[in-house]
Amino acid sequence: MIYRGVLTKMQTEFLEPIQYYLVFENDFIHMNQLLNKSVSIKLIGSQCLSCGLDRPIYRQGFCRTCFFDKPIAGDWIMRPELSTAHLGKEDRDLEYEKKVQLQPHIVYLANSSNVKVGVTRKSQVPTRWIDQGAHEAVEIVEVPNRYLAGITEVALKDHVADKTNWRNMLKNDVKDEDLIEWRNKLKKFIPDEAKDYFIENNSETHLYFPVGQYPEKPKSLNLNKSIEFEGKLVGIKGQYLIFEDNTVFNVRANEGLVVELSM
Ligand SMILES: [Zn+2]
After folding, report:
1. Which protein residues have a CB closer than 5 Å to ligand 1 (ion)?
2. pLDDT of 86-127, one tens digit each?
3. Which DSSP string corresponds to 195-239?
4. Whole-angstrom Cα distance, residue 245 to residue 178?
5. Does residue 95 lie in a domain region?
6. Structural domains in the chain (count)
7. What is the distance in A from the centroid of ligand 1 to the CA of 8?
8. Distance, first Cα to last Cα, the chain
9. Contacts of 178 (CB under 8 A, 6+ apart)
10. Is the same domain home to 23 and 107?
11. Structural domain boundaries, residue 171
């Protein structure tokens, strides 16, 4: 079987274990069914996720022009504290920014290699945690807009990490943490504007990834360098495909590449 299409991050279903789907324009592949099978990935070209043109991908699946022009790639995406739609202030397209920013957002703690703080739209829970490969997570604050979530994250970053170590996440070099205890410990650092939105009563969410064999020394596949790769798929965690020979492929980091997948 050969599938061809533009890579976008895998769609997921929050089941035990998590189910992954690679979605192409006319087809989708249920990736869990490829576990323990030989899969080959070949680079064909690139296609910007915004303009659809055959241009080199700059960041986040976008060509350089779209990355700097389109509202979907504004700075407030990666840095929520820069959000201004709640003030009626435009960055690139106020209508779009209102739609995305003025909706419930969650500040959470997730543990993928260490405990980290993060922000996501409420509608993206637990998708965001799955994409990060977190094996446990808990919401700490639910606020009505992205700005409030952003300033809360910034304040908490002084007391907890905001990055994960992808190698440790993939090696499953992790330990269980009591995230409720972490949440209660961090409560006093939540900025005044967001204090009323603290979530007192909820429990940890646990996530189970379909991994048969963790890589001991993950090495990242770069299709721009090697064009084609073939290997036995032994696991999926976060947005990574894990192969038997320690090769790992970050689907999300390769959004916009046109590939041929055969199995
Ligand atoms: Zn483009």
Report:
1. 48, 50-51, 63, 66
2. 999 999 999 999 999 999 999 999 999 999 999 999 999 999
3. HTTB--S---EE----BSS--SS-EE--HHHHSEEEEEEEEEETT
4. 34
5. no
6. 2
7. 14
8. 6
9. none
10. no
11. 103-206
